[in-house]
């Protein structure tokens, strides 16, 4: 169901204001979504004045600076800081991305930082991705072969291997799925761009024997055809992949595969 | 147990871009067109009941407000046609690169305005 407004307990209120204490002349205001599960209060938007003269270039650096120097209670996920692990996916300046690869210079005005959209918040910038992981599990993302006698490796030609380019690089950061309005409102049934890109990755793998069964599994009005080419997914992907195109390719394969 | 954690903001904070604007406009113009086609059918069918019915609606449509509606519908049809062509190309797997989607989106938006003006001028015998 399309629900434009947030539920009553999710409405964001104005939060605290942390004034700069360093006396720096190069200040940027950073608005960060906060929610503390130990209180009954609504989420709030705290504003931090951050000294940009002593801050490296990425949004994650700002968050680290806030946590280390201003407010240690801020909670967010991060790990590799190189755009490889996908932990620090969040919404910055109205667009999803990885905090560790998004330069803050690209955001105009005050920097707004929210958790990934339309998720149950666990705390501050941490959203609950369990639903997405369950859907990922449902497409059975592993190689399936029917052969019981094969003892050597399954050889793949260079051309067949090239088909996986643009699909295998996905780090499952959920930037695309949580940017998709169709996924916001039908996330319980629609698989969403991230999971469908992975479904595509196993469908086109020449070594996989279950292609037809895989196609049949996603050939469903709600699982697949909720994509309306809004293309928030492709423009959000921090790895430059194209989930929207992968979904279109699955639709094409289903149209000719007679499943 | 029901999850009582707050829902993170979504459409309230997400930035619009050309493709998302074209996509939502495609839906809105689609709904407008269904209503419009129904009204045009009723208008035509009302002829059966005599030409006074026709004149009544004709009078409305030639009023300033009526003209505004007619031009609006012409735009809505133009937009739908161009956007549908874009969708057909996408269904065939073309035009998914970010730069291409931006260009085709702009073509749809400005093309629909251009088509509206063109149809207006042709209909008024200006060209």
Describe the 3D structure.
The complex is a heterodimer of chains A (259) and B (127). Chain A is an alpha/beta fold and 259 residues long. Chain A is elongated. Helices cover 28% and strands 15% of the residues of chain A. Chain A folds into 2 domains: 8-127, Beta-grasp domain (Ubiquitin-like (UB roll), Roll), CATH 3.10.20.30; 130-257, Alpha-helical ferredoxin (Fumarate Reductase Iron-sulfur Protein, Chain B, domain 2), CATH 1.10.1060.10. The model of chain A has no long low-confidence stretch (mean pLDDT 94). Chain A is built from 8 helices and 8 strands, in the order βββαβββββααααααα. In chain A, strand 7 and strand 8 (126-127) form a beta hairpin. Chain A starts with 12 loop residues before the first strand and ends with a helix. Chain B is mostly helical and 127 residues long. Chain B has a single domain (18-123), classed as Fumarate reductase/succinate dehydrogenase, transmembrane subunit (3 helical TM bundles of succinate and fumarate reductases). Helix content of chain B is 74%, strand content 0%. Chain B contains 4 helices and no strands. Chain B has helices spanning 18-45, 51-62, 64-91, 98-123. In chain B, helix 1 (18-45) packs across helix 3 and helix 2 (51-62) packs across helix 3. Chain B is extended. The mean pLDDT of chain B is 92. The interface between A and B is large, with 44 and 28 residues.
CATH topology of chain B: 3 helical TM bundles of succinate and fumarate reductases
- Placed side by side, the strands forming the largest sheet of chain A appear as 1-3-2-6-4-5
CATH superfamily of the largest domain in chain A: Alpha-helical ferredoxin
Mean pLDDT figure of chain B: 92
User: Which architecture of the largest domain in chain A per CATH?
Assistant: Orthogonal Bundle
């Amino acid at each position: 169901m399309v629900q434009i407004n947030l539920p009553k307990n999710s409405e964001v209120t104005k939060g605290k204001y942390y004034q700069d204490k360093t006396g720096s002349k190069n200040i940027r205001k950073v608005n960060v979504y906060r929610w503390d599960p130990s209180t009954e209060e609504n989420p709030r938007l705290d504003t931090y004045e951050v000294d940009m003269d002593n801050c490296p270039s990425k949004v994650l650096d700002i968050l680290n600076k806030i946590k280390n120097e201003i407010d240690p209670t801020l909670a967010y996920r991060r790990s590799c800081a190189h755009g490889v692990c996908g932990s620090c996916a969040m919404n910055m300046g109205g667009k999803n991305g990885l905090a560790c690869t998004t330069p803050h210079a690209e955001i105009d005005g005050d920097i707004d930082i929210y958790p990934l959209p339309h998720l149950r918040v666990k705390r501050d910038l941490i959203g609950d991705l369990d639903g997405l992981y369950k859907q990922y599990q449902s497409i059975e993302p592993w190689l399936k072969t029917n052969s019981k006698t094969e003892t050597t490796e399954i050889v793949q030609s260079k051309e067949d291997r090239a088909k996986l380019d643009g699909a295998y690089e996905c780090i499952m950061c959920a930037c695309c799925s949580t940017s998709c309005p169709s996924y916001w409102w039908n996330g319980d049934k629609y698989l969403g761009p991230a999971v469908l890109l992975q479904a595509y990755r196993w469908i086109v793998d020449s070594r996989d024997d279950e292609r037809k069964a895989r196609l049949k599994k996603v050939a469903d009005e709600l699982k697949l055809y909720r994509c309306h080419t809004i293309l928030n997914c492709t423009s959000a992907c921090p790895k430059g992949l194209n989930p929207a195109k992968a979904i279109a390719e699955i639709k094409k394969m289903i149209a000719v595969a007679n499943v | 147990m029901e999850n009582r954690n707050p829902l993170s903001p979504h459409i309230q904070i997400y930035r619009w871009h050309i493709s998302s604007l074209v996509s939502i406009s495609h839906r809105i113009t689609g709904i407008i067109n269904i209503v419009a086609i129904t009204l045009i059918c009723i208008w035509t069918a009302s002829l059966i009941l005599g030409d006074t019915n026709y004149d009544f609606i004709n009078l409305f449509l030639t009023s300033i407000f009526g003209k505004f509606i007619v031009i609006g519908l012409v735009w809505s049809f133009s937009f739908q046609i161009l956007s549908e062509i874009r969708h057909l190309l996408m269904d065939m797997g073309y035009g998914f690169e970010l730069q291409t989607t931006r260009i085709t989106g702009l073509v749809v938006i400005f093309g629909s305005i251009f088509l509206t003006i063109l149809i207006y001028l042709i209909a008024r015998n200006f060209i």
